[in-house]
Each structure stands twice: as C-alpha cells, then as structure tokens.
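sry for the spam today, last one i promise. struct tokens for design, 133 residues
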C-alpha cells in the first residue's frame, strides 16, 4: 500500500511539473502553483524524488523564490485568480449537474478568500530595492 501511495504521489508530481512548465511558457496558465504542488507530491513520494526535484533549476528558480518571498504580489494574485476563474467558468458552463456547479462556484469563492486573506501580499521587488537605497 505504501509503495502504491509513493507511486501515485510521484505520478501526480510529474503531472503537476508538466503543467508548471506549460504555465511558464504559456501566459494564460500559472506555473507557480503547479511547481508548489510538484514539490509537495515529490516530498510525499520519496526522499530520492524530493532531493532530485530540489536540485533542479525549476525548483531553485520558482519554488524557493516563492517560499523566500513568503507571499505574492497583487499582480501575481490577480493573474492566477483570473486564469483559474476562466477554467472554473468553462467547467461551470460545460457541466450540466447543478450540485457540481455549486461546488465549483464554492471552490472559486474559497480560492478568492484564500488568496486575499491567507497569502500575504508583498510589494514587487523593484519597489523594495528603490526604498532601501
């Protein structure tokens, strides 16, 4: 059972990594949250996978930067929320089951609450550099 769980987390980690890479290339898809999901999944899969991912350029450039900043800029929050809202809206329009629509709308509202209240908003780095001079 533990081996199966490890394989499942590794598979989810690679899927999230692919979406993260696509999000880095495509402006409409946010890559950061997928990289964070990858880091979580690889950490849950095995120490070896976690160590491998932590040694990648992607981890050092995107995950460590997010963790060090301890938050997101307003621009990052808006971009991620609008992208997610677009896909949630497509799902709401596509799905014909009322309960699923209600759940999707509830998740979208919770996502906004989480981004506004739980993730700290930081100033862009260019402003911080100017102030310290």
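last one done:
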């Amino acid at each position: 059972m533990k081996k199966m769980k490890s394989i499942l987390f590794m598979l989810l980690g690679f899927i999230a990594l692919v979406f993260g890479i696509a999000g880095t290339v495509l402006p409409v898809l946010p890559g950061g949250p997928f990289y964070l999901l990858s880091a979580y999944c690889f950490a849950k899969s095995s120490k070896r996978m976690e160590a491998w991912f932590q040694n990648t350029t992607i981890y050092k450039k995107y995950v460590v930067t997010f963790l060090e900043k301890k938050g997101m800029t307003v621009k990052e929050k808006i971009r991620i929320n609008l992208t997610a809202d677009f896909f949630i809206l497509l799902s709401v329009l596509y799905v014909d089951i009322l309960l699923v629509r209600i759940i999707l709308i509830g998740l979208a509202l919770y996502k906004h609450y989480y981004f506004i209240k739980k993730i700290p908003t930081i100033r862009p780095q260019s402003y911080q550099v100017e102030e310290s001079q």
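Helices lie at 2-25, 32-45, 47-54, 57-69, 74-94, 98-118, 125-132. ok im logging off now
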